Amino acid sequence: MKISLSWLKEYLPIDQSPIEIARKMTMAGVEVGEIITIGDSWDDQLVIVGKILEISPHPNADRLRLPTIDIGKGEPVTVVCGAPNIQVGQVIAFAHEGAQIFNPRNGKLEILKGAEIRGVESKGMVCSPLELGLGTNHDGILELSGEFELGTPLFEVLGDTILVTELTPNRPDCLSVLGTAYEVAALTGKTVSPPNLDYETNSNRIESTVKVSIKDP
């Protein structure tokens, strides 16, 4: 079972480190076999939230374009990008020169270096999920949904810690995030705030909302 620490925090306050939480769970019989940190290679100053202000054609390559990125501080940055899905107004993940990203060709984590691409200097990158280590998709850039302050470290937006539990048959209560939250609360002395399950009701009959026709009984 993979438990997102950020999801757990929606149900109870957590003020202890993931290692300490994992230790307490394991000692209580809910073994944590692995701790995975999503975004542990993202430097807070080098991998950030940006926004595409404008896109210009590359003077020497039809398949490349030059997006200008608002990075929140200082002057906007223009880089070379070959992704087909970039659009003005998109909120994106931007990596400065010197950031660690995954090389799509070999899958290895490497330092991003500035380069001259078809005659245009580029010192940064609009990142795809693969380059960030968030999946295998390299067909286009990662577009962020939501309202974020430009220049915010990407780790604050997408970073997370995953506890991988190895449950025994006698602990089905921990086969959910909420169930695990109650276990962690018991081990740390915290109180769980369960999700709101209220929903709106009215007196309308279902027939007035949905119609079902059986065409082939």
UniProtKB/TrEMBL annotation:
The keyword Cytoplasm does not apply. SUPFAM superfamilies: Nucleic acid-binding proteins. It holds the Pfam family tRNA_bind. InterPro entries: NA-bd_OB-fold (IPR012340), tRNA-bd_dom (IPR002547), tRNA_bind_bactPheRS (IPR033714). GO terms for molecular function: tRNA binding. Signal peptide: none annotated. Residues 41-155 form the TRNA-binding domain. Keywords: RNA-binding, tRNA-binding. This is tRNA-binding domain-containing protein. It comes from marine metagenome.
